[in-house]
Amino acid sequence: MTDQHVDETHDVANDTRTRPVRDRFDSPPRGRRVGAHRLVIRPRRFWQYLVAALVGVAVLTAAGIFAVQNIGSSVTEIFDGESPAAPVEQVQAEVDPEATVAVLNGTTEEGLQDAVAEAIAEGEWGTIGFTDIAATDDVAISAVFFATEADEPAALGLAKQLGGVSTYQSDDYAKYGVQLVVLLGADYAGPGAE
């Protein structure tokens, strides 16, 4: 009986029926679905990642700008031990009838400088020193120039009366010996332009 039992065991060991049998779950077909639950692999959408990244960069940039503007000055104040600078006071426009004025015509319109000088004298917006033709006749923007900060209120007042022309501080016209220089350009539409 022992010999027979050994033979049966030996036969069982050599028998192919005792080996594990492969079934359809051991090698699933290749495809989009994988795993026991057959999870579907979603296609990658590059544009979604790109849009999300761009939105993130925009939000972080806006937050950074906000932080620098609102927090930066107080941090500087803490580390420097100084208070922030006082706000700059704006110069108020004042018409000064005693301010000496030169009127230069930078356009091709003849006599414009005299007409504007007459309007300034009649309105008592300044005292006319002289009128002349500018070095060039293709000036585009009209302006009132002043040399010193003390003359800025008078320049602003005269510029306002002339229809809101620009004002600039410049030493370029100091040689004329007047406080204010009105340079008429192609855009001039104030008093005397009629």
TrEMBL record:
Residues 99-188 form the LytR/CpsA/Psr regulator C-terminal domain. The chain crosses the membrane at residues 46-68. InterPro entries: LytR/CpsA/Psr_C (IPR027381). It comes from the Bacteria. Residues 1-29 are annotated as: Disordered. Pfam families: LytR_C (PF13399). The keyword Transmembrane applies. The keyword Transmembrane helix applies. Keywords: Membrane, Transmembrane, Transmembrane helix. This is LytR/CpsA/Psr regulator C-terminal domain-containing protein. It comes from Leucobacter soli.
